[in-house]
């Protein structure tokens, strides 16, 4: 009852006054809390970090959502964490297999394939066992402009027990650093004819040192799905390899783990935000509300 009354009173105040009250309360806590309140201060710190993340989300949404941009002859509207984002209306048939993508991410993969223009190739980096791949193929195959194309799929296919074992049944678990390409082929099922699969590495990482680096022949790239790591280095490595083939104002880069820069407590390897901030030519156009996916339009800055 008291909390409801306080909330009702606060809603009557303008935002500037609410902000001053919040800052005054926080300052009072910081200056008067005794050493015995250490546990409470730690809780406050964690809550404050989550508030910061939510505030950054809201600022980004207000600043960018609803913006109109042009992709070749296609009009695109920016949707960031919106309940009325068009992909959320897409009917999704669940795929029963191991994977780490949310339902909204699967909806986005199927929806975005319908925007394929037929101007270039489509690439997926880091499919793991192929759940995202199967949703991507569903979306692309619903588009007649993809009828004579294949999805180019790259992975090092190195099994890493430290995090992969928890997502599969005991029978599918492999020794550390084993080649799991056969497992991928089994789970990918009838999508296999629509894939061009290559085992290669973006950069050296935990058991893939003997593999050849990814090479791209230079064909224009229209859509690129990236799920290969979150560090600045690994993202810069794939960007250096593929971006010379990006088409200005056409190429879409869909980053599976982009929103994981929001994870709290902070993790040192979550550098996706730093990466895109270092590349202003990547214009944020889509961001799911539930999951890690964000998409960018490649628009070189004059």
From TrEMBL:
Protein name: Macrocin-O-methyltransferase (TylF)
Lineage: Bacteria, Pseudomonadati, Acidobacteriota, Vicinamibacteria, Vicinamibacterales
InterPro entries with a match to the protein in the record: SAM-dependent_MTases_sf (IPR029063)
């Amino acid at each position: 009852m008291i909390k409801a009354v306080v909330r009702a009173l606060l809603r009557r105040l303008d935002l500037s006054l609410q902000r001053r009250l919040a800052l005054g309360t926080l300052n009072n806590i910081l200056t008067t809390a005794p050493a015995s309140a250490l546990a409470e201060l730690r809780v406050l710190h964690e809550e404050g970090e989550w508030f910061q993340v939510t505030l950054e989300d809201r600022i980004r949404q207000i600043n960018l959502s609803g913006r109109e941009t042009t992709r070749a002859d296609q009009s695109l509207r920016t949707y960031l964490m919106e309940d009325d984002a068009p992909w959320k209306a897409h009917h999704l048939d669940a795929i029963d297999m191991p994977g780490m993508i949310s339902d909204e991410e699967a909806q986005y993969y199927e929806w975005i394939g319908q925007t394929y223009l037929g101007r270039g190739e489509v690439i997926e980096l880091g499919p793991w066992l192929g759940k995202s791949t199967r949703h991507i193929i569903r979306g692309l195959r619903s588009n007649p402009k993809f009828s004579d194309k294949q999805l180019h799929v790259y992975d090092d296919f190195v099994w890493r027990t430290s995090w992969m074992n928890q997502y599969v049944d005991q029978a599918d678990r492999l020794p550390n650093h084993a080649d799991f390409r056969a497992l991928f082929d089994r789970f990918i099922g009838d999508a296999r004819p629509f894939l061009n699969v290559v085992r290669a590495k973006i950069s050296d990482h935990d058991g893939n040192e003997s593999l050849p680096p990814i090479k791209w022949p230079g064909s224009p790239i229209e859509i690129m799905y990236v799920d290969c790591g979150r560090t600045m280095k690994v993202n810069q490595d794939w960007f250096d390899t593929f971006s010379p083939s990006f088409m200005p104002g056409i190429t879409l880069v869909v980053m599976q783990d982009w929103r994981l820069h929001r994870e709290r407590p902070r993790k040192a390897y979550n550098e996706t935000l730093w990466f895109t901030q270092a590349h202003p030519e990547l214009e944020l156009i889509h961001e799911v509300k539930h999951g890690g996916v964000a998409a960018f339009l490649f628009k070189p800055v004059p």
